[in-house]
Amino acid sequence: MTTQTVVLEDIRATYGTGERRLVALDGVSVAFERGTFSAVMGPSGSGKSTLLHCAAGLDRPSSGSVTIDDVSLGGLTEDQLTRLRRDRIGFVFQSFNLVSSLTAEQNVALPARLAGRRPAPGAVAAALAEVGLADRLRHRPSELSGGEQQRVAMARALISRPAVVFADEPTGALDSVTSRHILDLLRRLVDEHHQTVVMVTHDPVAAARADRVVFLSDGRIADDVRGPLAPEQIAARTAHLVEKSC
Ligand SMILES: Nc1ncnc2c1ncn2[C@@H]1O[C@H](COP(=O)(O)OP(=O)(O)OP(=O)(O)O)[C@@H](O)[C@H]1O
């Protein structure tokens, strides 16, 4: 096995056709090593979410290749792709996180159950307690705030130990104390369990907790910096990119 969990090679992603065709990613190559925490930053519209969606096998790029844990996604059928996402990828996304008819507890246990495993007794409750939701086990997503739903998704990533966790603005909807808690948990996935975390964020404070910051601009990698970086340095680089893309 390589030391790289996620490898993107020369990814192009486009939306629309003809005059309305828009190139969201324009030849992006980047690899995320096992046991590292990377932040993806860049101006609005620079392609961050598209990158995350392609890397996680939620969207297929128009060209280029994505490999997760040595499996090339391009060669997989939709069923195989679904299984790979379920077994090896954790999602901490603001949308399409959770199954609306299931309780928080059931949502956390779902990936394991779909894979035919039963979580260890108490493990689901412990994971939800770890994200501060011990008193919300039986709530359904509609009965939880956006931030709480995000934390249920986080608990699911804690319990199923996927090789890679993709997080899209995981702290965007949270107050600063809860944000720090979520970032601590993401760090623990990496430091204690050697999982790989790739996080899109606009927040320099969140990005400063990562080992590396990949900056996108106009669908290309504009900078790729290994930490530690202070939030102020990250904010300055982001401001510079925003200026350049205006
Ligand atoms: N479904 C879509 N159809 C058409 N264009 C799209 C679609 N999704 C994204 N785009 C366009 O592709 C480009 C990249 O979008 P993307 O969402 O990846 O950017 P982003 O960096 O995540 O932005 P933000 O920080 O605002 O979330 C943008 O110009 C956007 O308008």
From TrEMBL:
MF terms (GO), sorted A to Z: ATP binding; ATP hydrolysis activity; transmembrane transporter activity
Q: Matching Gene3D superfamilies, A to Z?
A: P-loop containing nucleotide triphosphate hydrolases
Q: Name one Pfam family in it.
A: ABC_tran
- Keyword Transport applies: yes
Mind telling me which GO cellular component terms the entry cites?
Answer: membrane protein complex; plasma membrane
| Every ABC transporter domain range | 6-243
Supply the SUPFAM superfamilies for this chain: P-loop containing nucleoside triphosphate hydrolases (SSF52540)
Record bears the keyword Methyltransferase: no
Protein name, per record: ABC transporter ATP-binding protein
Q: Which UniProt keywords apply?
A: ATP-binding, Nucleotide-binding, Transport
Per the UniProt record, the lineage of the source organism begins with:
Bacteria, Bacillati, Actinomycetota, Actinomycetes, Micromonosporales
| Signal peptide per UniProt | none
Q: Which organism is it from?
A: Actinoplanes siamensis
